[in-house]
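Practice problem: predict the structure.
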Amino acid sequence: MSRDTCPVCPHACRLRPGEVGICGARQGQVERVAPLNYGQCTALALDPIEKKPLARFYPGTQILSYGSYGCNLGCAFCQNWEIAQVGRATQAGTARVAEARFISPAELVTQAVELEARGNIGIALTYNEPLICPEYIGDVAEAIAARAREQERNQARSALLAQKRTRDSVQDKTQAQELLQPEFQPQKQSLKLVLVTNGYVMPAIAEQVFAVVDAANIDLKAFNQEFYDAVGAPAGLSTAKRSIQIAREAGCHVEVTTLVIPGLNDSAEEMEREAAWLASLSPELPLHISAFRPAYKMRDTEATSASLVYELARIAQRHLKYVYPGNV
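Answer:
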């Protein structure tokens, strides 16, 4: 039985029909590798945009947050391990996947529209790793675009009806012509699409995805490859850096998060190098420096002190204009 290579991330899993990749969400099928988690929703909530975290993208608004299951990294400190680490849990014989229900891209957009009255500006794909299912991202983006086109047509029809009423009510035809100028230009009010991602994805996929995404928070888990080796990401540092660059070049609003774990990625020298590199892209690129709290396989690890987070933030501020301490 032949194997097919998954094109999504650098793991490049070679899968026979029926075999599941490292992420726990993509499966070998006849002549292709397909997502098992397409539209399989395990978490859905209306969150403050700052919770993503995005500090400089429509602050003060809400966003409908959707999560599925699976992840292509094996972080021992994962906050959402019950849904994100399903692949490794399955391999270890300890799988427990949260109950999922199918939500089509069109249905997700409909729910987002219904929440606009509560301050919702769009959809965030988050909680697990969204990039392992680029098919769903693309279809949600298309559903958003279809909704915007429909809204534009409705606005145009409304404007034409208003113009007709004006024309019928004005006796002076010259005055009517003046009222009808300039031609109606519909105002686009599209939902925003946001990703919260580790950025561990092949460049071709990143280019396709970030071209249709409005904003992303991308994890830069550490500025040393040894850390990425520990979470199962060969060339993970270079891949995450490349994803940040691709997203910015695509015109996507990008913010970066680094979760600081004592003894693993908490040195002043490392933060100095990270902030300097981010500033080489733009000194206005926002960086969130977040404190670790014990979770998953690292429940006995010491939590990050607030003083350390603030110290690293001061170092980052030598290079970056916008630095946000988090979880302190």
